[in-house]
Design goal:
The complex is a heterotrimer of chains A (183), B (252) and C (421).
Chain A: H1 20-42, H2 48-52, E1 56-59, E2 68-73, E3 76-82, H3 85-93, H4 105-108, E4 114-118, E5 141-145, E6 150-153, E7 158-160, E8 172-176, E9 179-182
Chain B: H1 2-17, H2 43-55, H3 78-86, E1 89-92, E2 101-104, H4 118-124, H5 143-152, E3 169-170, E4 178-179, H6 200-215, H7 219-249
Antiparallel strand pairs in B: 1-2, 3-4
Chain C: H1 11-19, H2 22-30, E1 35-37, H3 46-65, H4 75-84, H5 89-117, H6 125-147, H7 152-163, H8 172-180, H9 187-218, E2 234-236, H10 237-262, H11 292-300, H12 310-323, H13 328-331, H14 343-364, H15 371-396, H16 406-413
Antiparallel strand pairs in C: 1-2
Helix pairs in contact in C: 3-5, 3-9, 3-10, 4-5, 5-6, 5-10, 6-7, 6-9, 11-12, 11-14, 11-15, 14-15
Classes of the chains: A alpha+beta (183), B mainly alpha (252), C mainly alpha (421).
Chain lengths: 183, 252, 421
């Protein structure tokens, strides 16, 4: 059997630790490894076909005053509310009310008559009621989440119930007066 | 010495046996802009090739693995792509009434096929199925050279004694020499938007370049990354060699 | 497994070491505590290279699996999505497909090294046998992996090879139906091949671990084929062979990545870029290049022997051509290991290499004309090499005198003591 004692050890310590060539080679090799790992990590980021449908255009033209529609953006429901002047006034008045998540209505819309929110309750993720005629809108005229009883007002703000935050406003822009692009 | 003998024996066998059986005419090798270590796609050729696909090939051949948004690579703007896509319709739905409906294609949609399914394609072409062209350059031996040769290899009359079947066309490069597709291109078949003279050879080159791109859209990124990677590795391996010599010198 | 006698000064390392001796384990297996012959040449790099490629294949494979769908309606399309839409997807795919070819080139060279220098002889017979199990596992993995893109060659190659099992008498047809999960290669087949293709590399990993365990008992063979005797014959694996293996990996990466970036479809078949069509058979069905010699042996048997059909004999011959390697340590009785001191064996080794190349070339071509008798002669010679030539040489060959020791051979000429070839 071969024992360790049979080994001829190198003349010096063996491995030139502080040698410039060693450090330089080690650095270059480490850099190369990092560069090689990046494609593995980046391949998990959204692919081109996912990014292509990451924006949704919505034509607001057909939506009448007082009407609400639901569209899908990145797999999530988006509530588009064409608010009547009464609803807008109500939202403005509620600016002064005691709010769980204080925010002015004007901060939440780009055009007063169009309220656009992500239709996911900020408590535990259910989809609140209020989009269909006949749905309960809760005590504040906005939306009502049946899962644990969160009430949202006409600006989508949380007013009563366990939800901590107002309904989230998604990123959107008006590409025309009656068209928005979400995302 | 043994290695020399065995190597020459092997080579003799390989070279000698290529004469064992003959194939169709040998495909000429052309100079493509995308060939070689530094190859890139000529954007002008890609645009012209796309025009040929749209005006000629798309009548029968699908391009199902490409999306309209991919045309950004060729140099079309966002609005141009929207317009190109919107010329076609795709099925969507069901709507709130439970019905399927047609809508104009969007950039994110895949290229619309000329036929709804394979059987419809065969029915419209006397039983022959026009192949999808997304990968055609990688799916044929000879690649772009073969596609160009095929498109320019039609002969009006087969050679004497050749039995050309009904509905077939004679082509000197197609294996078996009988192809169901009639010659799709000829001089002036397309009027180029950029004014290039549309000879048969030019048309064949441009469509072959376009189809090489549809088969390998990653080609330019791949080659440019490759150059950087190989240069890096040459440096690193050189340093490793020097380090190895240094360490081994310590022996004895 | 031996433990090194190395003492560690760092308190954190000592704390861990006392509870789980991982550092002394590393030191005694690949570190300064592992003795290796001082005269190993570059043919000894291929083992570590194979290990590196296995890791690359598993890493790229897992990332591909994150995007692949093993269903006949989506398989081909999901691979094309990887190529076109997934970030760096084309790179992952080409690394994996070319890595497979590299893996086989490396392992074949590694095996030929073993044949030339007698690494399969006592006391390393089990090391060699484990190696045969590894190549078998690699072949099964590669075969199933090639089916996954669901191209024409994927489908028809799978059909031809799985159909071979029908040659087994009585139960053959049932076995094929059982393998397919149906009455032809279809979705059940694809799905299970994906599951097993994911599984087998980890079994391979375990086999490699045991293979290395066996290696570490008697340590590496060397180009002279003589045992280490005293001090001066061996040197520590680290730093000498760690740096040499790393340099070898650098050279390998240049070759490997040249294919990946500039000729990624060189080892492939154009027909596999056509989606599988069970109604259309391609003009030539060819397996991947690393299976070609075995394909040639399979097709060489065109005649029945008594009541045994040619197809069955072909299947038996094909599997035997690999399994015969298991018996090599006992077929070769020569006491001298290395071909450097066996002039006749050396000649026959190179003829054997030529024979395998001829078999590969025959396998690549349709079984017509001259290819048939050449393939049959090459097949007969393949078995004759193991069953006739090797045993005879073992008994009859007059070997050259061996050097005194490794260190004597190394220091005497100032080089590593190698002769021509």
């Amino acid at each position: 059997m071969i024992e360790q004692s049979m080994m001829q050890q190198p003349l010096d310590d063996g491995f030139p630790r502080r040698d410039f060539l060693f450090i330089a080679t080690g650095t270059v090799a480490a850099a190369g490894t990092a560069l090689a790992v990046w494609p593995l990590i980046h391949s998990m980021n959204p692919a081109a076909d996912i990014l292509a449908v990451s924006k949704t255009e919505v034509d607001l033209g057909p939506i009448e005053v007082g009407q609400r529609i639901t569209v899908v953006w990145r797999g999530k429901p988006i509530f588009v509310d064409h608010r009547s002047p009464e609803r807008i006034a109500q939202a403005r008045a509620d600016d002064k009310a005691e709010l769980i998540d204080p925010q002015l209505d004007s901060e939440r819309v780009q055009k007063d008559e169009w309220l656009i929110v992500i239709g996911i309750c900020t408590h535990l993720g259910c989809i609140p009621l209020g989009q269909r005629t006949g749905d309960s809108r809760g005590d504040y005229g906005g939306w009502f989440c049946p899962c644990h009883g969160s009430h949202y007002d006409t600006s989508g703000r949380i007013r009563k119930g366990p939800a901590p935050k107002n309904l989230v406003i998604p990123p959107y822009t008006f590409t025309k007066n009656t068209t928005i692009k979400i995302g | 010495m043994q290695k020399k003998i065995f190597l020459s024996a092997f080579l003799a066998l390989v070279l000698g046996s290529s004469a064992v059986y003959a194939e169709s005419e040998k495909v000429p090798s052309l100079d493509w802009s995308f060939k070689g270590v530094f190859g890139t796609f000529d954007r002008g050729a890609l645009k012209r090739g796309f025009q040929i696909y749209s005006e000629v090939c798309s009548a029968c051949h699908s391009l199902r693995l490409l999306s309209y948004r991919n045309l950004k690579e060729i140099g079309f703007s966002k609005n141009e792509i929207k317009a190109i896509a919107a010329e076609k319709e795709v099925q969507d739905g069901p709507n709130d009434d439970g019905e399927m409906f047609m809508r104009p294609a969007k950039p994110a949609d895949r290229f619309v096929s000329p036929y709804p399914n394979k059987k419809a394609a065969q029915a419209a072409n006397n039983g022959a199925l026009p192949p999808d062209l997304s990968l055609i350059v990688k799916a044929r031996k000879g690649g772009a050279d073969y596609i160009h040769a095929l498109l320019t290899g039609y002969k009006d009359e087969p050679p004497k004694g050749f039995n050309l079947l009904e509905g077939s066309n004679y082509n000197i490069y197609f294996p078996g020499n009988q192809i169901a597709m009639p010659a799709p291109l000829s001089d002036d078949a397309v009027e180029y938007a950029d004014g290039t003279k549309p000879t048969l050879d030019q048309l064949a080159r441009d469509i072959s370049t376009f189809l090489a791109w549809t088969s390998s859209p990653e080609l330019e990124a791949r080659k440019s990354m490759g150059i950087k990677v190989i240069l890096f590795l040459l440096v690193l391996t050189g340093m490793l060699y020097a380090l190895m010599k240094r360490i081994w010198a310590k022996l004895h | 497994m031996s433990h090194s006698t190395k003492e560690f000064s760092n308190p954190v390392i000592r704390w861990i070491e006392y509870r789980l001796p991982i550092f002394s384990f590393i030191d005694s297996s690949v570190g300064t505590g592992y003795p290796t012959p001082r005269n190993l040449n570059y043919w000894w790099n291929f083992g570590s290279l194979a290990g590196v490629v296995l890791v690359i294949m598993i890493l790229t494979g897992v990332m591909l699996a994150a995007n692949y769908t093993a269903n006949v309606g989506y398989a081909f399309e999901s691979v094309e999505r990887i190529m076109r839409d997934v970030n760096y997807g084309w790179l992952l795919r080409y690394l994996h497909s070319n890595g497979s070819s590299m893996f086989f080139i490396i392992v074949y060279i590694h095996m030929f090294r073993g044949l030339y220098f007698g690494s399969y002889k006592a006391p390393r017979e089990l090391l060699w046998i484990l190696g045969v199990f590894i190549i078998l596992a690699m072949m099964a993995t590669a075969f199933m992996g090639y089916v996954l893109p669901w191209g024409q060659m994927s489908f028809w190659g799978a059909t031809v090879i799985t159909n071979l099992f029908s040659a087994i008498p009585l139960i053959g047809e049932s076995i094929v139906t059982w393998l397919w999960g149906g009455f032809s290669v279809a979705n059940p087949t694809l799905n299970r091949f994906f599951a097993w293709h994911y599984l087998l590399p980890f079994i391979l990993f375990a086999l490699v671990f045991i293979h290395l365990w066996a290696l570490h008992v008697h340590k590496s063979n060397n180009p002279l084929g003589i045992d280490a005797k005293g001090a001066g014959d061996m040197i520590p694996f680290h730093p000498y062979y760690t740096i040499k293996d790393t340099f070898g990996m650098g050279v390998f990466m240049i070759i490997y990545l040249s294919f990946v970036f500039f000729a990624p479809d060189f080892f492939g078949e154009p027909d596999n870029y056509i989606k599988a069509n069970p109604m259309v058979t391609p003009p030539e069905i060819v397996p991947e290049w690393y299976f070609l010699p075995f394909y040639a042996i399979l097709r060489a048997i065109t005649f029945n022997i008594f009541f045994i059909p040619a197809k069955l004999i072909g299947v038996i011959a094909m599997f035997s051509s690999i399994l015969i390697l298991l018996f090599l340590p006992w077929l070769d009785r020569c006491k001298v290991r290395s071909a450097r001191f066996r002039p006749l064996y050396k000649q026959f080794f190179w003829i054997f290499v030529l024979d395998t190349l001829i078999l590969g070339y025959v396998g690549a071509n349709p079984p017509q004309g001259l290819f048939i008798p050449i393939g049959q002669a090459a097949t007969a010679y393949y078995f004759a090499h193991f069953l006739i030539i090797i045993p005879l040489l073992g008994v009859l060959e007059k070997t050259k005198p061996l050097p005194e020791s490794i260190s004597a051979a190394v220091t005497e000429s100032g080089t590593s003591g190698k002769e021509n070839g």
